[in-house]
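ok trying again, last paste got cut off:
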Amino acid sequence: MDELENYRQQINALDRQLIDLFAKRFDIVRAVGRLKAENGIAVVQSTRAAEVTERAVQMGIEKNVDEAFIRKLYKEMIDLAHVMEHQIVEDHEQSGR
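nice, full thing came through this time. structure:
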């Protein structure tokens, strides 16, 4: 059972790192949203979203991570990023900046 507990502790540590990385990624998303709002750039950049997803899929394949999982994860992250950016643009427009 010590071995199982050790694995669980490793997973817990990795979960903390994942959450930290998600937080950093979404901090950058908010900065991108502000930049798009200030410069009148469209929120949804379909080509960019596809490039990000395909790059992640390739990295996942190289590390033996399930392709479908990577696609689902990145779809969720990109969808949330678009929602966040739309809100930032809307707030920017309402503030009259």
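cool. Helices lie at 2-39, 46-62, 67-95. The chain is about 85% helix and 0% strand.
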